[in-house]
Design a protein that fits this description.
The protein has 832 residues and is an alpha/beta fold. Strand 25 and strand 26 form a beta hairpin.
């Protein structure tokens, strides 16, 4: 009995695992989006005719349909394939080996494997339903998204194919020779984001082959790359080939994305073994270049994330213009600019911001490692689908319509300079007001991020800003940048020491010579006698000191601070308290806390230094607040003072009698004890003062917390009250909704009754042999029987015309007058 129960339990567990596996596969199967417009019916039919029924893919067809007529597309296409074909209803789930047709007058998107319908929208007069679905497909399925653009008469689908390829999907377009109308697939191909340009029959064959490749069948294809290789290090040979051809070392890039891109290329060439693809790379240099372009993902668009540009206009640009001289140019660097959309977007926003004030010279540098992307950015010409999200006002002002698309206007192009640059190997720009590096760091490993962010800190002015992508942050370099807008990833440069990596300065430069002699380095240095004299005086007479920021990080040493500060053992650090001499730490901490709290210079005197010689030092902490910034800085000065013997010690020394020119051992011991007692008393007084400061701060913090707690309680009560009001309003809305539903049902019932009565009336009038004409109150013809057509000379188009316009065959001179009298009096009148 126990054995049978265990077998049953094992069988049940196995079934559950099978069901879970089926559910998992159900979620992970690829979905093919197919878009078309004019001539799409023939292309759809040809593609489905040659498409196997067991690919394991789901197919969604999006065509521009008339909004006023019922679509017969699903019935027509059902004859071309054995797969189920159905017109989509809202929230319909996508299943493998099924075909789904968009209904008329609808916008369709994919959300959690459900097809969502919404009223169709027109952007600048165009129907972009294909782009809308492709974008949602790319976001939902990623590498398992496949996009196909067939015959059509506009540019719909081009922008969506770009999104699919950026997400790691595979893209197709119908070749010009086989398309009835080639505008739609040609526009998609012109973006450079189409993998295959084929006939519908060839697209079907290619889809069948791709459907069995691990790239689209495995849940996480990048994790299967090692399983498809026999070499211990499958990526090493490929990276070596890429570096030899392009000069780019991808070793420290994040390998997850790179593996997915390699597998995508393998799927395009139907290669299942990584070594086979490596051999293919060795024999096909063009594929090496194509793979490098795949790695250099170009994700950009005009005014991407509008909230970011709004934050630039409201927070960054006003700060850049504060106290700026008219001759001081605004310098901006867009690192990883791709095809230039972001560079031009920043230029447009900055120009709009400066319209109301004197405009200094604007210099925007766009750099990218891809020569193809830089050439595209320099041309400044974009197809219509790439500028459809731009407002009509900006399109009229900053763009010029040219053949095949739009070109950036000349004033904006003159602001922008584009150049090829390896961010990790070439020297950076300097004295910049803003650096924009969005969605570049996410592809770098930690090692590369540690190299790039300090370089950005070095390149910015002290008042400069850094803009990162929505998924990026300063990470381990947070000590270099202060957040200005965390949500939009805008940071301000901190005044701190820059740890710049200068590995890119490796060129062999010839020494400059003049008249056969090496140039004197001091000749052009602009030696200033007065400044040199000032420097000597400051070093000799001015007290030593340091400047620190609010995090107690030293950003500048002034003079010789070695008696007071020294590097701490372990990891290098510029923290003041870590470097301070042991006896100074307590006093420094107390003085800094007091200076922050009171915002006045704080002076601490007669602090003994440890060592063989008895020395004392005076420290002074002065608060520094640069204008137009919230960051706080402090100047700390160290002034050594000679120790003076106390009056009591001098009196004791007078009482002691010298013996043979030397003090006795007891006298020396007494002096030493008194010195130690004095130092201990001073230390106790300092500690007491420090503790008192800590207690005051704690009391202040407690008071602030109490106030904040009261505010939170008050806000909580307000929220509760608001919640109750919302609940009441919700109940009222529900009641109103129920009433509207009832009214709607009544109206539908009356409409059905009216339809029946109308149908009966039509049947009656068409079957009766009596000439009858029905008129409205304005004597316009509403209906008539077939017998009345001959008597009154009526035709079907006379419905709605005034009866007085009709010349009848009966001789009743005052017929209209009789009709009006009947309408007014409701009394029947007869006349033969």
């Amino acid at each position: 009995m126990n054995s049978s129960q265990s077998d049953a339990q094992a069988e049940s567990t196995a079934k559950e695992e099978v069901i879970k596996e089926q559910d998992k596969n159900q979620e992970l199967f690829p979905i093919v989006g197919i878009g078309a417009s004019a001539g799409g019916l023939e292309a759809f039919t040809q593609l489905l005719k040659y498409l196997p029924v067991d690919t394991g893919m789901g197919f969604v067809l999006i065509q521009h349909l008339s909004p006023n007529h019922k679509s017969l597309l699903s019935e027509i296409l059902a004859r071309a394939t054995q797969m189920p074909v159905m017109e989509v209803q809202d929230c319909m789930m996508v299943e493998p080996n099924h075909i789904y047709i968009i209904p008329p007058n609808s916008k369709m998107t994919l959300d959690q494997n459900l097809l969502r319908l919404a009223p169709r929208e027109r952007i600048q007069g165009k129907d972009l339903s294909v782009d809308a679905f492709f974008n949602s497909l790319a976001q939902e399925r990623g590498s398992k998204a496949i996009g196909v653009v067939l015959s059509g008469a506009d540019g719909d689908g081009a922008f969506g194919l770009k999104a699919i390829k950026e997400a790691g999907g595979i893209t197709f377009a119908q070749c010009e020779a086989s398309a009835q109308v080639s505008s739609m697939p040609n526009t998609a191909a012109a973006t450079g984001h189409v993998d295959f340009i084929l006939t519908p029959e060839e697209i079907a064959v290619c889809l069948a082959k791709i459907s069995h490749h691990p790239y689209v069948t495995y849940p996480e294809p990048e994790k299967t790359l090692e399983g498809l290789a026999h070499d211990k290090n499958p990526l090493k040979n490929i990276f070596t080939l890429l570096q030899a051809d392009t000069g780019i070392d991808f070793t420290h890039y994040k390998h997850t994305t790179l593996k997915r891109r390699i597998l995508r290329r393998m799927a395009l060439y139907k290669l299942d073994i990584l070594e086979d693809y490596a051999k293919y790379l060795q024999s096909n240099p063009k594929e090496v270049e194509a793979l490098s372009q795949e790695f250099l993902i170009h994700v950009t668009s005009f005014f991407r994330d509008p909230e970011v540009f709004q934050a630039l206009i409201e927070q960054v640009f006003p700060s850049l213009m504060l106290n700026r001289a008219p001759t001081d140019p605004i310098r901006i660097w867009v690192a990883g600019c791709s095809t230039g959309e972001e560079v031009y977007s920043i230029a447009i926003c900055l120009q709009e911001f400066l319209d109301t004030q004197d405009s200094p010279k604007i210099m925007i540098f766009g750099t990218d490692i891809s020569e193809l992307a830089i050439e595209k950015a320099r041309s400044g010409t974009y197809i219509p689908s790439l500028v459809e999200q731009i407002s009509p006002e900006r399109l009229r002002r900053f763009f010029v319509k040219v053949e095949g698309g739009y070109e950036i206007s000349k004033p904006i192009r003159q602001m922008c300079v584009f150049a090829k640059q390896n961010l990790l190997a070439d020297p950076p720009f300097s004295q910049l007001d803003l650096i924009s590096c969005r969605n570049v760091l996410i592809y770098f490993g930690t090692t590369l991020q540690k190299q790039v962010l300090p370089m950005f800190h070095y390149s910015l002015k002290s008042t400069g800003f850094l803009l990162l992508g929505s998924s990026e942050s300063t990470g381990e370099s947070s000590d270099l940048f202060a957040p200005v807008n965390k949500k939009q990833r805008i940071y301000a440069r901190k005044l701190t020491a820059t740890r710049l990596n200068t590995d890119y300065f490796i060129g062999n430069y010839l020494e400059q010579k003049v008249n056969g002699k090496q140039m004197n380095s001091d000749a052009g240095s602009g030696f200033d006698l007065l400044k040199e004299a000032d420097r000597i005086v400051w070093n000799k007479y001015a007290p030593a000191g340091v400047i620190i920021n609010s995090d107690l990080e030293i950003i500048q040493f002034r003079g010789d601070t070695s008696p007071y500060l020294s590097p701490a053992p372990g990891k290098p650090s510029f923290n003041l308290l870590n470097m301070a001499e042991a006896n100074l730490r307590l006093e420094l901490r107390a003085a800094l806390m007091e200076a922050k709290r009171l915002d006045i210079p704080i002076r601490k005197s007669n602090i003994p230094l440890s060592g063989k010689e008895l020395k004392e030092v005076t420290i002074e902490v002065i608060s520094l607040k640069p204008p137009h910034t919230k960051e706080s800085y402090f100047l700390i000065l160290f002034e050594e003072v000679p120790p003076l013997a106390s009056p009591q010690l001098l009196e004791d020394n007078r009482k002691l009698k010298p013996t043979r020119g030397k003090q006795t051992a007891n006298s020396q011991e007494l002096i030493q004890l008194k010195c130690e007692l004095t130092a201990t008393q001073q230390e106790l007084a300092t500690t007491k003062e420090y503790l008192q400061t800590v207690i005051q701060e704690q009391e202040s913090i407690t008071q602030e917390l109490t106030t904040a707690n009261e505010e939170i309680l008050s806000s909580n009560e307000e929220l509760r009250s608001t919640n109750e009001e919302l609940q009441t309003a919700q109940e009222e809305i529900q009641a109103t909704n129920e009433e509207l539903n009832i009214t709607n049902e009544e109206l539908q019932s009356r409409i059905l009754e009216s339809s029946k009565v109308n149908s009966d009336l039509r049947n009656l009038l068409s079957s009766v042999n009596i000439p009858i004409v029905m008129l409205g109150s304005d004597l316009s013809i509403r209906r008539f029987t077939p017998m009345a057509e001959k008597i009154f000379n009526l035709i079907p188009t006379d419905v709605g015309r005034p009866f007085s316009h009709i010349k009848s065959n009966i001789n009743v001179p005052n017929l209209e007058q009789l009709i009006e009298e009947v309408i007014d009096t409701l009394v029947i009148k007869k006349q033969e």
